[in-house]
């Protein structure tokens, strides 16, 4: 049970931090603000994080929380092609409306230079586990090609999403991330769809 409590505390800190980063900006948010909002302690904060900068790489946790919330509504026997498009729309809508461009860019920059964990590439994330399940079922149901491995389709899909997010940051968010992705993703996924 202590492990679950520790994870809950960590997620309370992560969620509070990202709410504050969005509301006040990264620079204007202090560790004290995060501790107060999360209703935890400074000791708990420093147990999980070395400092405020360490929280930048936790944005992937928020993405995973969104996937966990959506998971129960997924019909694995449904159209995997459409399910992947729908999941992307939900995630990118959340990012476009709840994550500041500056924070997303900071998170990407930390992932590029970190010598430690690269959270975005962690195959144990809910993101990869859920996508792998959807793709695998899509292959079994004859919707997605089976001559390409599940892992290769998964890798390509994740690469597509990261590339779009990176471009959106480079372009200072001057287009709708969600709309642009919804126009490009079907064309991209068609290469993996059974004809």
**What is the first-to-last residue Cα distance?**
49 Å
Question: What is the SS-derived class?
Answer: mainly alpha
Overall average pLDDT: 87
CATH architecture of the largest domain: Orthogonal Bundle
Number of domains: 2
Number of helices: 9
Total DSSP E strands = 0
Low-confidence segments, given as residue ranges, are none
CATH topology of the largest domain: Tetracycline Repressor, domain 2
Helix content: 55-70%
CATH homology group of the largest domain = Tetracycline Repressor, domain 2
Residue fraction in strands: under 5%
Order of helices and strands: HHHHHHHHH
Classified by CATH, the class of the largest domain is Mainly Alpha
Largest sheet, strands/sense/barrel: none
* Radius of gyration, in angstroms, nearest whole number: 18 Å
Shape: globular
Ordered list of secondary-structure elements with their pairings:
Blueprint: H1 2-24, H2 31-38, H3 42-48, H4 59-71, H5 80-98, H6 101-113, H7 126-140, H8 150-170, H9 177-189
């Amino acid at each position: 049970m202590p492990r679950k409590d520790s994870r809950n505390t960590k997620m309370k800190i992560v969620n509070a931090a990202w709410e504050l980063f969005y509301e006040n900006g990264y620079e204007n948010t202090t560790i004290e603000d995060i501790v107060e909002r999360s209703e935890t302690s400074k000791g708990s904060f420093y147990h999980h994080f070395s400092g405020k900068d360490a929280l930048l790489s936790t944005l992937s946790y928020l993405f995973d929380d969104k996937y966990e919330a959506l998971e129960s509504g997924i019909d694995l026997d449904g159209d995997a092609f459409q399910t992947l498009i729908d999941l992307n729309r939900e995630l990118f809508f959340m990012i476009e409306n709840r994550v500041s461009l500056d924070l997303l860019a900071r998170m990407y920059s930390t992932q590029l230079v970190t010598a430690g964990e690269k959270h975005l590439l962690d195959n144990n994330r809910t993101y990869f586990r859920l996508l792998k399940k959807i793709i695998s079922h899509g292959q079994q149901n004859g919707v997605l090609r089976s001559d390409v491995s599940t892992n290769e389709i998964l890798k390509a899909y994740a690469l597509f999403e990261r590339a779009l997010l990176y471009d959106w940051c480079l372009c200072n968010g001057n287009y709708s991330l969600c709309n642009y992705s919804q126009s490009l993703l079907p064309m991209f996924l068609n290469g993996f769809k059974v004809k």
